[in-house]
Amino acid sequence: MSSSVVRMDDSPSRPRRRQGPLVLGRQASFWVSAGVVAHTLWTSAAPAMTYRLYAEEWHLTHTVTTGIFAIYPIVVVTILIIFGDISDQIGRRTTMLLGLGASLIGAFLFAVAPNVLWLFAGRAIMGVGVGLTAGPSTAAMVEFSAEGQANRAVSITAAAQAFGFAAALLLGGALTQYAPWPTHLSFWVLFTLIALLFTATWFLPRHAGGQAASRWRPKVPSLPPGLRPAVTLASIAVTTAYTHGVLILSLGGQVARDLVGSPNALINGTALSLFAITSGVLAIVARGLGPRPAMMLGAMASAVGMGLLALSVAWHELGIFLAATAMSGVGYSLLFLGGMALINGTVATERRGGVLSAVYLLAYLSLGIVALLLGAVATQQGLALAVDLGAGVIVLLSLATIRLLTTQPRRHCPVTPCLPV
After folding, report:
1. Which domains are seen in the chain, by residue range?
2. DSSP tag of 20
3. Each residue of 21-49: pLDDT tens digit?
4. Using CA atoms, how far apart are residues 154 and 238, in angstroms rounded to an integer?
5. pTM
6. Closest CA to 252 of 363, 371, 163
């Protein structure tokens, strides 16, 4: 249905029935869900340009600043373990509303934070918000897409993430460099945007997912045995993509300023946003690419990007740093695009929320562990070594993705139609 507002349930997974006075139609619901997807990366990237300011104002070490970053994926993982498939039971809309409410509280705590403890609390609550919304919003985009448009939904999912990522870095860089209250104003902007998104999400169709008759209980997201090879491959690809966030978000601003030698927050935010811009462009351009070619090319691009990053630190060259962030964005986009397309082509709708949560669980777990390790290394041994080690981790994950691609059978398609691979 193409109209933006209807009077009936427009859920793709349940029969239509009459409900509240105002319900969004399929197309509008698709774009609201895309907004929720964008919020997950915007929320993740929001403090990227202010970590350096916190460190200067409160005399924080690299261990503490990366700890602020790392508590976020750790909480996301915890939420995914406990509530990973909850949207398959209580509905995408209800789960997204709970997550957006938590993100709203987290943004507020950052906006008023008087000390570092408030940052840890805000970051943890943001993790709750993203943990509850990441899987359901991705699943909702596929379910609200037009018939036979799953590939388009995947590419727009990646583009929405890229938009949220780029907006956080560009807006954060501009407000940090030129606006008053550099450690607060960008979070008031985020707070306002999440509030608007919460309002729009309220009017999504109400439905209880594919397993409405069963009673939800907390449990670790699991993979049906027949899907494990394909979902393992997709999980490694998405994990490789997400681990870029450690170097781009938790350390990127400090790398640009201290190692590359660029003191302007807006310039640094723009440089880091190339990661998001290139990933967004690739998400649209490469949406017709099969999952396996996308993941293969993405793994190769990620390895090259990490080599360029290490080189930019060694030579203190902003140009090479720009090339590194752009190439890493190519790698991120293709890995994420391929991984999500493989999942959407192999997992039935009623299991998709739980499976996506399992994939995000592994990705965020890697993000948190690597962030904590690199923070400790940066504090004890220096930022340059931490960057080199982080780049090495991503190269290893890229090689693992390539290895799985070359050894696994080419088709795992228990649902139809099967995506081309």
Report:
1. 23-212+222-407 (1.20.1250.20)
2. E
3. 688 888 899 999 999 999 998 998 888 77
4. 13
5. 0.74
6. 371
